[in-house]
Automatic annotation (TrEMBL):
Residues 1-164 form the Laminin G domain. It comes from the Eukaryota. InterPro entries: ConA-like_dom_sf, Laminin_G, Neurexin-related_CASP. This is CNTP2 protein. It comes from Toxostoma redivivum (California thrasher). PROSITE patterns: LAM_G_DOMAIN.
Length: 245
């Protein structure tokens, strides 16, 4: 396809911070890739570059953050020549692509949820999307509906299900005064804790526990946006360990 205008829209939700949402490329060096990187949305677009290097068409735009929150996010890409409107959750960003070309030449297949292995170093380092998509619309074509009715030819569908599996994690919300207290294990000489957390606050106590037999305590907190771990041991000379990250 050689297009002057494109409209691509879809909704997604995921708990992964990396993954290719959409990809298309052509023999002339044109490409369009929409992907998650570090839980941000990145659009890479090239309407063409020349071999002399005087016309460099690569354009990259990043928007959003913390998009791996397993909530639905909507994307709309509207292109007219070099003018692009990128809308994420109703927040629109307007930009112009680099280079001098207006048409997007996509000679190969367009893929959603990943990109085919092309042998290029960039392709095998990119993760496929893991999560849910709905309402995929590409230039007026309802891709989700066509895929479900097996009306896409040619098509290559790998391990795809038309349902959205919910994660089995149960989140807990803490306000400024709440806390969760669980029983300890006095006979264990191993202390092991793991959890995921998300907060907008730069300071706060994440974890506190006294060791049995008055051997000390362990404390984990957020201090000015950094996680700090403090271990106090009463029976050794160097009785305090502080780790910050």
């Amino acid at each position: 396809m050689k297009t002057l205008k494109d409209v691509i829209s879809l909704k997604f939700k995921t708990s992964e911070s990396e993954g290719v949402i959409f990809h298309g490329e052509g023999q002339q060096g044109d490409y369009i890739t929409l992907e998650l990187k570090k839980a941000k949305l990145v659009l890479n677009l090239n309407l063409g570059s020349n071999q002399l290097g005087s016309i460099f068409g690569h354009t990259s735009v990043t928007t959003g953050s913390l998009l791996d929150d397993h909530h639905w996010h909507s994307i709309i890409i509207e292109r007219h020549g070099r003018n692009i409107n990128l809308t994420l959750d109703r927040h629109m960003q307007h930009f112009r692509t680099n280079g001098e070309f207006d048409y997007l030449d996509l000679d190969y297949e367009i893929t959603f949820g990943g990109m085919p292995f092309s042998g290029k170093p960039s392709s095998n380092s990119r993760k496929n999307f893991k999560g849910c998509m709905e309402s995929i619309n590409y230039n007026g074509n309802n891709i989700t509906d066509l895929a479900k009715r097996k009306k896409l030819e040619p098509t290559n569908v790998g391990n795809l299900s038309f349902s959205c599996v919910e994660p089995h994690t149960v989140p807990v919300f803490f306000n400024a005064t709440s806390y969760l207290e669980v029983p300890g294990r006095p006979s264990q000489d191993l202390f092991s804790v793991s959890f995921l957390f998300r907060t907008w606050n730069p300071n706060g106590l994440l974890l506190f526990s006294n060791f049995a037999d008055d051997l000390g305590n362990v404390e984990m907190d957020i201090n000015e946006g950094k996680v700090s771990l403090h271990i106090n041991v009463t029976q050794v000379k160097k009785n305090r360990i502080d780790i910050s990250s």
